[in-house]
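Researcher: First entry.
Model:
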Amino acid sequence: MKLLKVKSRVLLFLVAVVGLGSLTWVETSGWPNLEAVSLDGSDVVNWSARFPLSKNKPLLKQNLDSVATQLLSKKRIGKVDISYALPNRLSIETNRFEPIALMLEQTTGEFRGIDREGRVLPLESTTIRWDVPILTSVAARGLFVECDDVRVSVVMPQLAKLSEEASGFFALISEIDFGPADYLYVTVSGMPYRLRVESASIHEQITSFIHFIERYSPETDNVENFDLRYPGIIVSEESTG
């Protein structure tokens, strides 16, 4: 506890120094007028004509709400982050969502990204990662909103947690099929079987399955499905062929 208090004092001292330095700079020179704007890492030419920003106003008096509203009105922009880059620049970043899985849109056959909240994201073909799960039998209502199937928004936070706790197994998940109404099918790369899981418990059930495989190393050559939906029990279904 004593060490924590010491660290807190040091942190507060550093914050105070930075604050006093900034205040002194403002008092002596004033806030400079905005001179440069970047959008997604690139400098914007003639930014005062493109955005509701003024070259004759200080950096901190610019109408940033109007800038965000203008950008968000565009169909393919779902998030805007604006930050100050002292002494005289604004940095604008759009769509800083991180897809952790892909979805194959069942009506168009196009790939989309899915973030940890279940939002549908646009993808550039050059940036598609294939080492993440692909969600199938799902449809998108649009960009930056959830899928038609509400189970996607239930599953995605659990997948994000699984990717952090068991990244090796997560990388082996090639497909999650939302076709059945009462459960999901999970396909694991290189394995002859699929996993039958519940959307509300996919993290818990897959984690239990990982422990089961690691502990018992069962023979799986003839197994077609493992049903993980029963508490404390893993049911194997063998192929009849």
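Researcher: Second entry.
Model:
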Amino acid sequence: MKIVFRTNLGSYDAKRLGLDHMKCGIGKTIDVNAETAAELTKRGVAVSEEDAEKDRLIQSARGVPDSEIDGATSVKAIGKKPEVTAPAKA
């Protein structure tokens, strides 16, 4: 089963699961057995490959602009005129 990591998996946890920690970084896809996939998805460390396309954290790590992610909203700031003030004389 292919999963995509939502966060970096540490070397200790990767070794315990029989994985290469260099391949277990945020946004990376790896093929694992069903038991390992279930544990990682239950802990929130990874999601299935199908769900990765909807995950904003993974898409951000992959460099996808917010405008291309479903449900993204844009925020506009209110422009202010710059002011310059002098210190008060005592």
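Model: Note on the second entry: The chain has a mean pLDDT of 85.
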